[in-house]
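Re: [help] complex structure
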Amino acid sequence: MFIFRLKRTIKLGAKSLWMHRLRSTLTALGIIFGVSSVIAMLAIGEGASRDAQEKIAQLGSRNIIIRTIKPPEDQVAGGQQQTLMEYGLTYDDAERFQNGIPDVQVIVPNRRISQQALYRNRRVSLEVVGTVPWFPNISPTRIRFGRFLSTTDMHYKQGVCVLDERVVKELFAFDDPIGQAVKVGGDYYRVVGITTEQSKTPTSPELETKDATGAKKAAGANVGAMYVPLTTVKDRFGEMSMQISSGSGGTLERVELQEIIVQVQDVDMVMGTRQSVQTLLSRFHKKNDYEIVVPLELMRQAKDFQRIFTIVLGSIAAISLLVGGIGIMNIMMATVSERTREIGIRRALGAKKKDIVIQFLSETLILTLSGGLLGMALGALIPFFVTHFGQMRTVITGSSLILAFGISGAVGIAFGLYPAYRAANMDPIESLRHE
Amino acid sequence: MIDFRQELDFDAEGPILAMEDLCKSYQLGATELRVLREINLAINSGEYVAIMGPSGSGKSTLLNMIGCLDRPTSGDYRLGGQSVSVLDDDDLSMIRGARIGFVFQSFNLIAQLNVVENIEIPMYYQGYSEHESAERAEELATMVGLGERLRHRPSELSGGQQQRVAIARALANDPLIILADEPTGNLDSSSGAEILMILDRLREEGKTLIVVTHDEHIATRAERVIRLFDGRIDKEEFNTR
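Output below.
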């Protein structure tokens, strides 16, 4: 009985809306755009947030990354021109972490040098990463072919290297790289393995600079890495590097390590260990020549940011739906006064107030819910184009669809109730006389 | 809530409609406007009654009263043996739907609905099933001579045809009273005559008809003419045919 009535009520509502097609469509547009913008915005927000989360997760939630940074000039020389600058992390620091902080499980010291590699007549810019055999354990870098560096390589300071996929792509067109020799800075290195990264999506440039495999790169330059035993790098490149600074000619710099990555056993220990690292470093580094990056902290910040982002998007969406709702209410008020006569006839023929409320409310709901459905379709289409043309990741979650549809229903009820109530409370005698 | 449909076959002892000292007044600022004064009226089942009177005599108010669109200020109104002066809005709606069949001067069909759907309206509010009401609506439409135009919209019909739809609609719930307000007022004379013939036929079938009019020609077809003047029943005449 109730289902029968519902079906007929919907049919009747649809018929009345169909009478004023243009008006109904225009009214529904408000809801269509409101709902689609909610879904699209949430999809873009969700995509960006997942991107960030994944990037940070790649840095390792149990890792603490300590990086060498160039200290401000005045702290180094006190105004004097100095030709040799000595700063940054040292092998002693790595040893101190190992011995002084009990929670530390793995320590990876890295040297990073920008170089050019040569193979036959091909040349490519890359970053030589002097590292240790257990580097893959704490980074998303995985062996694709061959092997990673071994302790034997370390011990004998072997001239071997492991290449990043990106480097391989540029350096070796057709040859199998394994076993080939690559020339870097006057020395030859035999390729023993190829690595790949467990990254699922194209990386966004701003996060790229904080990637575990390549610290501070030139903006936009996405150079690959060449992994060489740390001992070999120390042996062949030394610890000095020439920096050409503008105006004052060349400065010699001496940096032992570019970064030390520390991994703790459990996520709970990260913040405590960060404190210990800080304390330990501050004792030996009088200059401000290091920074500590905690991916876990970044992850928390990203989550906070995501929450604010969601609130902002939610407010914008709420406002757009509010505007759509007001439009609907406006039209329904006009419809009610236009159909005063019909209301009078229905009341005379036995309609209760409740029946009139249901009739007009269901008309509003049909309008908003069909607007909601169309909005969902449009809202699913927008992120598709954003991903396709804007190279941005978007994620449409089921909950955002349900939310948007639910809101369109709620808007229908909230803004349809008053016009329906007005219709029901008209005096039947006066309504019948209404022209 | 009372299910009026169950009571439709009530025992027709006594009048179908009875008014006792019924008064209706409106408050206009400080003055009280007394529109109906001590109306005493009894109409039996199967009667054809015309209510006449000049403008301002209270015709419309009495019509609204009979049609349960309005409540009396004082006095009692019994329809089918039940006092309606004490009922609430929902019950009045039910009574209107179940016991009164309205026929209006300006037809009052709903523009977006076709002939059958218009006839279905009273049955819809009485809770008939879709199938049941559609079948009955088609039957009624055929009865008033619109069997060929079941799916037409009111705008596609002539005035006389629209009024016939309205009569079919008034008959839908098999009411106690057919209450017509100037049923020929908006029609040309030949369409008007057709409508009056249909009303005559309903009378012959035993329906109770109350027609409010100021057309003497219609009044002569009724068995009983009630003349209102200044809110009172001025005269009652009986026609013999």
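Chain B has one domain: 14-238.
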